[in-house]
């Protein structure tokens, strides 16, 4: 991450992650450094505690609150679920123009993200690839941009099982997504 990108992200979340009323608190810049190190390299919280000379519980709390701040600050700009028929049709047009795949409203898939097994989790996070993971399930547009993300499902769950429990599926089934009505494909009659 460039210095400019780091500083821009820090400016967005600074007030959400800075601590007040603490004599020698951990500053917002260091909080962001700890979190980005964790996200980019997958260091254990114990190794981050040692590296930054702070407690393991403090590392956990910093990562959680900083990730929440990043999410709250960026979700509306970078993760936009279409709200109108016109937006969905624009996605479908991109799929047809770029990939020759008409009437496609998104590419859906899951990705296993390796984790350290949480305490007392048994085999809940143990996946078919023989390691512990959590699942990121997402829908992307034709330009590889996320339009919906669901993170945190058990590694032992299947993509279908995760989709079945997603808010997106519920919104889709209840007709709350303003998906365009079905149309015939050209040259199929």
TrEMBL record:
<dbReference type="InterPro" id="IPR027806">
    <property type="entry name" value="HARBI1_dom"/>
</dbReference>
<dbReference type="GO" id="GO:0005634">
    <property type="term" value="C:nucleus"/>
</dbReference>
<dbReference type="Pfam" id="PF13359">
    <property type="entry name" value="DDE_Tnp_4"/>
</dbReference>
<dbReference type="GO" id="GO:0016787">
    <property type="term" value="F:hydrolase activity"/>
</dbReference>
<keyword id="KW-0378">Hydrolase</keyword>
<keyword id="KW-0540">Nuclease</keyword>
<comment type="similarity">
    <text>Belongs to the HARBI1 family.</text>
</comment>
<keyword id="KW-0539">Nucleus</keyword>
<protein>
    <submittedName>
        <fullName>Protein ANTAGONIST OF LIKE HETEROCHROMATIN PROTEIN 1-like</fullName>
    </submittedName>
</protein>
<dbReference type="GO" id="GO:0004518">
    <property type="term" value="F:nuclease activity"/>
</dbReference>
<feature type="domain" description="DDE Tnp4">
    <location>
        <begin position="108"/>
        <end position="174"/>
    </location>
</feature>
<keyword id="KW-0479">Metal-binding</keyword>
<dbReference type="InterPro" id="IPR045249">
    <property type="entry name" value="HARBI1-like"/>
</dbReference>
<dbReference type="GO" id="GO:0046872">
    <property type="term" value="F:metal ion binding"/>
</dbReference>
